[in-house]
Amino acid sequence: MQKIAAGNWKMNGISTSLSEISLLAQRHSTSDVEILICPPVTLLGNACSLPGSVAIGAQNCHISRSGAYTGEISAQMIAELGAKYVIIGHSERRSNNGETDYIVQKKMMSAQQEGLTPIVCIGETLRQRQNSQTLSAIKTQLDGSLSSEAAKSPIVIAYEPVWAIGTGHVPSMSEIAQVHEFCRKQLKRRFGDLAVNIPLLYGGSVKGSNAAEIFALQNVNGALVGGASLKAEDFSQIILALEDA
Ligand code: PGA
Questions:
Q1: Ligand 1 atom, smallest distance to 165 CA
Q2: What is the pLDDT of residues 47-82, one digit of tens each?
Q3: Ligand 1 touching residue 203 (CB < 6 A)
Q4: How far apart are CA 16 and CA 23, in angstroms?
């Protein structure tokens, strides 16, 4: 299984931030971990042109290839730049931009059609967790966000509890393990043997100090990291923990 350390820069970073990607490439030049940075779209082209093996991804794409959609970016445009991945259905987009499972599925399909690997994000809210609805919420999101052909092309799933994103709160290790095992089972039920190769990332307040215990869990194949991916120094600690896992 490919291990993936993915950094989501969100709306952070200007051109001087590209040096962080170069530093990562230098430090981890022989890594067996797929190191991925998803910078804001303004940096995407220049990030893709940097030497080194750090993969580059976008944070969103439109469902259509082209058209009258002011301000939007299509998967075709992202792929043309040389990006390899695109994050789809991050909880911030689900809540701030009204992205439903149906829209997430359309975006995922559009990404795969252009040869991009979608990183499809799912995760329960605090209210769902408190009401013991975590697994049912995850099931609904997995069912609704993935097309029937989703596992026939490369795809990654990121489990990110909404209440753990940017808060410093992390579920217990057994809670993470439970959801990841559940995801694997759901994917197997739907996609059979193809599900075995789908990397499952954990996301939500991952840091150098908690990465090793998270990566030691079964069915955790890497992380999607926000705040701690902005500086090479911090992200490097997480990558090192994944290299050792
Ligand atoms: P965080 O963000 O690592 O800052 O919690 C994770 C994410 O939003 O993907």
A1: 5
A2: 999 999 999 999 999 999 999 999 999 999 999 999
A3: yes
A4: 12
Contact of 110 with 147, CB cutoff 8 Å: no
pTM over 0.90: yes
Q: H-helix or E-strand containing 192?
A: none
Ligand 1 nearest atom to the CA of residue 92, by list position: 8
Distance between CA 174 and CA 66 in Å, rounded?
44
What are 72's two structure tokens? 């939007």
Pick the closest to residue 227 from 203, 200, 197 (CA basis): 203
Tokens of 119: 């990183």
Helix (H, G, I), strand (E, B) or coil at 201: strand
Q: Which of 6, 4, 73 is nearest to 44 (CA)?
A: 73
User: Which residue carries 């989501």 as its tokens?
Assistant: 8
Give the whole-angstrom CA distance, residue 214 versus residue 132: 22
Q: How far is the CA of 131 from the centre of ligand 1 (A)?
A: 23
Identify the structural domains of the chain with CATH numbers, from first to last.
4-244 (3.20.20.70)
Determine the residue type at 48: C
Environment class of 218 (CB within 10 Å of its CB; exposed 0-12, middle 13-18, buried 19+): exposed
Q: Hunting for tokens 């975006």 — which residue is that? A: 107
Candidate from 224, 229, 230 with most ligand 1 atoms within 8 A of CB, to mutate: 224
pLDDT in tens, 19-34: 999 999 999 999 999 9
Q: Which helix (H) or strand (E) holds 181?
A: helix 173-191
C-alpha pair distances (Å), 40 with each of 20, 49, 139: 14, 15, 30
